[in-house]
Backbone:
């Protein structure tokens, strides 16, 4: 089989790595990819938002299955386009992808099918939004309604921070979407629940925990993710998450005739009142992907094909991990606001470490950074603490310069639980 993966970061590097292990796969293409991926796949110089260019390539190469990693082509309707041209694609339609591309849409769906989430209100006018925040007070959560690369959320701990966020989103319109959703601030432990979905069929993956803030102890601005681990010893509510979140969502989307296909990301919080949804995404989480796929004893391509094959009986189920995994993101200094790029970075050989590149290119003898999140350093072990130690020992061996930074506390919530 010929596989096309769409995206260029560490998530797509990990997807290509997992697909390369499939007994069904002969060739993997990644568009637009990065230099590190070319060891396991052919890199195609087509931008992720050029959905017509991607379609023409898929048709000419007779691609058997396309897997979409990144969000922009979903919003543009790549799944609709590919299916209309007889191509198999694992991705949601443009309408179904609104669970990520419009926070307001997602909130309304949750309200209609009784999924617990934070109380909210939607605004397009700055003065009205500010008046609401002034009345409600802080802490409060401000979310850009549309796509923002994982950086369109501000957890404002005071009214001044909320005011700055509203100014950015509504007055300066930095993400091109003059609409915000303002939510109540929830307290509890946040985690990710990923599922592979096709209509009313799903495969649930182990829980994982991303670390969104840039700096240790959850300080600094929100990022696309600074590290993750799986599974989570301190959270074990799979039955509740499936019954109260996943099932009602996919059934509701089917009911309103926009069935979901693809990677369903549920950002959840364990509160004193049970699980509540923070957000839905219509793609595999990043960096959650890089710590989940290494601990799943499955043929990813075969799994997706079986899920899509409606001629065969299928029982929705949960996949249990075969070990533990932890990953730490190496980021460019200044990320997420103004990453400073163009610096040498070295990755010593180590058979106990997986490296998924997010934003590097190879020049002459070494890699050079070309984006905010540069790479994810991953280790697998039967013991989560040992996996963490492997990762941080390896990062020490990289001799990183001050041009890069990383969090030193990835997995701390799990370790506090394990040490009690």
Residues:
């Amino acid at each position: 089989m010929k596989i096309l993966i769409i995206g260029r970061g560490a998530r797509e590097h990990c997807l290509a790595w997992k697909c390369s292990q499939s007994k069904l796969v002969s060739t993997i293409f990644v568009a637009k990819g990065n230099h590190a991926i070319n060891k396991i796949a052919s890199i195609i110089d087509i931008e992720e938002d050029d959905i017509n260019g991607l379609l023409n390539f898929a048709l000419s190469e007779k691609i058997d299955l396309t897997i979409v990693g990144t969000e922009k082509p979903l919003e543009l309707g790549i799944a609709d386009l590919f299916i209309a041209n007889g191509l198999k694609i694992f991705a949601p339609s443009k309408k179904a992808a609104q669970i990520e591309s419009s926070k307001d849409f997602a909130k309304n769906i949750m309200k209609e099918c009784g999924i617990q989430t934070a109380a909210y209100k939607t605004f397009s006018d700055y003065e009205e939004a500010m008046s609401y925040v002034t009345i409600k007070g802080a802490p409060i959560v401000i979310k850009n309604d549309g796509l923002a690369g994982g950086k369109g959320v501000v957890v404002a701990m005071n009214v001044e921070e909320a005011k700055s966020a509203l100014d950015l989103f509504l007055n300066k319109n930095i993400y091109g979407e003059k609409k915000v959703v303002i939510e109540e601030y929830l307290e509890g432990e946040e985690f990710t629940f990923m599922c592979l979905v096709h209509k009313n069929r799903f495969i649930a993956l182990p829980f994982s925990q991303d670390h969104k803030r840039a700096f240790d102890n959850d300080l600094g601005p929100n990022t696309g993710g600074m590290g993750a681990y799986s599974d989570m010893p301190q959270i074990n509510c799979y039955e509740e998450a499936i019954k109260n979140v996943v099932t009602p969502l996919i059934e509701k989307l089917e009911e309103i005739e926009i069935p979901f296909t693809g990677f369903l990301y549920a950002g959840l919080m364990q509160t004193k009142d049970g699980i509540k949804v923070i957000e839905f995404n219509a793609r595999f989480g990043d960096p959650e992907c890089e710590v989940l796929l290494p601990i799943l004893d499955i043929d990813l391509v075969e799994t997706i094909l079986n899920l899509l094959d409606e001629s065969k009986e299928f029982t929705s189920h949960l996949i249990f991990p075969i070990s533990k995994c932890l990953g730490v993101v190496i980021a460019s200094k200044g990320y997420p606001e103004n990453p400073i790029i163009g610096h040498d970075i070295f990755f010593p050989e180590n058979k106990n470490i997986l490296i998924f590149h997010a934003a590097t290119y190879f020049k002459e003898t070494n890699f050079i950074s070309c984006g905010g999140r540069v790479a994810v350093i991953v280790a697998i072990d039967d013991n989560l603490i040992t996996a963490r130690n492997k990762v941080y020992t390896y990062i020490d061996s990289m001799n990183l310069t001050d041009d890069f930074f990383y969090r030193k506390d990835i997995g701390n919530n799990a370790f506090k639980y394990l040490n009690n």
About this structure: The domain at 119-184 is CATH 3.30.1490.20 (Dna Ligase; domain 1). Residues 238-255 form the longest helix (18 residues).
